[in-house]
Amino acid sequence: MYVHLRTLAWLRRGSRRPLTWRRAAMIGFIALLFVPLVALLQLCRALDHLLFPGFRRTPIDRPVFIVATPRSGTTLLHHLLALDEETFVHLRLYQTVFPTLLLQRAIDLFAAVERATGLPFSAVVRAINARIFTNWEGIHDVGLDAEEEDEALWVFSLVSPATYFLFPNADGIPELRNIDSQGARVRTALARSYRATMQRLMHAAAPGPGGAARTLLVKTVLIPNRLDTVREAFPDARFVRVVRDPRQAIPSATSLFYATWNGHSPEIARNDPETRGVTAMFLEHYRRLCRFADGAPPEQCLTVYFEDMVREPLREIERIYAFLGREITAAQRERLVDKLGRIDAFKSDHAYDLAEFGLSEEDLLAALGDVLPGLPYGPQPTA
To answer: In the 3-class helix/strand/coil scheme, how is 157-201 assigned residue by residue?
Structure first.
């Protein structure tokens, strides 16, 4: 697993604010977990080559990436598509925390023992979920055993913008906004490591009906900082881009970071430089995804609008299947209808205002003026 050690030098810039005891304690606690875990993963991934050498020959053909800025409906869309386990292979959070075949086989063994003996291993997982992920409840529901995006894999490599959760200084550590800019050597090392992780996942997965190959399905909402790297890992990848009105998507994405900062730096206000730095990053990300989609051939990228998913979720999922050259089976349609009937699909209890995080529509126009004309959102440039 590639680790970009240069990031450690960047992090020395820390925060624009003095280090408080709360943030120091949290950074120390995370470091005490992170360093031995990375060492363990490096050892286990090396053992994977000895114990499961076949994973290196596992093909991954035309994987599907659900991409967007955060809080654009990607979580529910990912969960709905993941219901089709005959077609797709997807990540769960614990698989991103333990991206090694050896540890995943050990977890599978614990699950088998629980089924055979009734020992409450899953109760421990539920307790961890309740203790760790409460702050994000209703904003982004998370659990160790839930379908999840790939971000932890990039955190282990020290190239994820999620680092701003602990070091709230996006302006002071701008390199993490676009790791692709670090050059071909870094990109290639990350791409190889990322592909090898996904090969492990696919190697462990059961085949589809009749032994048919299944398709890798990945949700990734911070991909704009590494879009070229992912495309180097998977040149034949297909992308389902979800677009939401930036007047809601940008402040909603910023709220993910702000919710975490409340735990260690409650003095940071909603319109302080730290929050404005993160919103600027998400504006860059939003723009980069728009530019990528505009230049991609239609067979490589499908655009889905959040508002259309709110109105007609099943219709939009049918569009996605058509884009992938597949048809929804009767069984999958039944699962989708049942799931959609039990939830308030693609709707949130939270509403956000640009001004809440120090933004105006003029700021949006300045940052996104060249891509807004292709989207059904205002404000639009005037002639």
So the answer is: CCCCHHHHHCCCCCCCCHHHHCHHHHCHHHHHHHHHHHHHHHHHH
Return the domain boundaries, the chain.
6-374
* DSSP-assigned letter for residue 132: H
Note the pLDDT tens digit of each residue in 27-55: 999 999 999 999 999 999 999 999 999 99
6-374: CATH topology: Rossmann fold (3.40.50)
Task: Note the pTM of the prediction, 2 decimals.
Answer: 0.89
Residue pLDDT, tens place only, 360-382 = 888 888 889 888 888 888 655 54
The b-or-e profile of 198-222 (16+ CB within 10 A means b, else e) is bbbbbbbbeebeeeeebbbbbbbbb
**CA–CA distance, 43 with 110 (Å, rounded to integer):** 21
Burial category of 47 from C-beta neighbours within 10 Å (exposed 0-12, middle 13-18, buried 19 and up): middle
Whole-angstrom CA distances from 299 to 90, 271, 295, 325 are 22, 41, 12, 10
In this predicted structure, which of 154-158, 248-252, 336-340, 345-349 has the lowest mean pLDDT? Answer: 345-349
The tokens for 193 are 């490591």
Cβ 255 vs Cβ 352: under 8 Å: yes
